[in-house]
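Record 1 of the preview.
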Amino acid sequence: MSQITTHILDTTRGLPAQNVPITLFAQDGEGWKEVNGGVTNGDGRLPGLLADNEKLPAGVYRMHFATASYFQANNETGFYPYVDIVFEIDASGTHYHIPLLLTAYGYSTYRGS
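->
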């Protein structure tokens, strides 16, 4: 399993949010360096964000969810064209699950398992 996993649930529809572009960045000094990315599948997940054996160094990371395209595809006006979730990981290699619960006018997240 990838060290970092994610999924998006559209809580208005009660369905996974598919075809949402996601990019993972690592903090690099004062800026950000792209690590990897992709698009959510029919289950709202992005499998293979990292290779199963890849362990990231401790640091601050940002997951960028490009939500505007999702709202447009569903003929919906969204208030948030994107959502950035910034989080910090340690050097243990522990699994981190970063879910996004999304509506057109709000979102929430938590550290999942």
